[in-house]
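Final report, closing paragraph on structural work. Over the funding period we assembled a curated collection of sequence-structure pairs, and we close with a single example.
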Amino acid sequence: MGFTKTTEESSQYDHLENKSVNEIINNINFEDQTVALAVEKSLLQIETLIECVVSKLKAGGRLFYIGAGTSGRLGILDASECPPTFGVAHDLVIGLIAGGDTAIRKAVENAEDSTEQGWQDLRNHQVSPNDFVLGIAASGTTPYVVHALNKCNENSVATGCITCNDGSPLVLAANYPIIVNVGPEYITGSSRMKAGTAQKLVLNMISTTTMIQLGKIKGNKMVDMQLSNNKLVDRGIRMIMNELNIPQLAAEKLLNKHKSVRKAINSYSQ
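Its predicted structure, as stored:
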C-alpha cells in the first residue's frame, strides 16, 4: 500500500513481559498523554466535519457511525449515549458494527473483511443523501468501512472518517477525513489503545458539539436528558431550582408534572 501504516509500526518499548507493573502503567500513561495533543492537530478537520453534520441534522438527516471491532464499538457507544444525554430520538445517531450486534460483545470472524455488508447495513436503515456517514477505522483499510463509504459516494451520501493513517483508502474515500496520528502503540498493533482513545475523544467532540449546535444544551446543562434513574431526577430538580431560583419542593412538582427539565423551566417562565 502506498502509505505509512503507523498503527502497525513497532512499539518503542520491548521485552514487556520482563517489566514490572509500575513500569508498564507508567509507560502506558506516558503514551496516553500524547493522544490529546495528536487530536489537537486535527481540530480544523474535526470542525469542518461537524459543520457538515450539523447542517444535515438540522435539515432532518441522521448521523451514522460505521466501523468494525474496537472502532465499531466506540461508534455504538457514542451513538447509544445521545438519547439519554440529549433527549434525541434513538434513530438520530446510529452506530453500525461489522458482524451486527453480536460483535459488540464477541468478535465475529471475518466480518470486517466483507466488501458488501457495510453498504447493506446502511441500506437496511434507508440511508439517503439527507444523512451523513462517518467511517471509523484506525488502520484506514477495513473493507467493511471503506467499501461502504465508496458506495455512499456513488449515491450522493456525505461521508467522513476517523483514522490514524494518512493516505489510507478510508481517507481517500471520505469527503471529510479526520486523521489523528498517534504513532506506534505500546503493544505493537494494538489499536484499541492510543488509536481507540483518539477515536473516543473525536467522537465526544462530534456528538457533543453537534447537539449543542442543535440546541440540546441550555447554558451548560443537559435540559433535555432522559430522566431514567434517581440520580438524573435529582440532577434535574437541582437544575430547575438553580435556573428558576425556587425551593426544592416547587422544583419537584414542576418536574413531576412536565417530565422534562426544559419543559418545566419553560412552563414557569410563561
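The chain has two domains: 6-213, 230-269. DSSP finds twelve helices and five strands in the chain. We thank the funder for supporting this effort.
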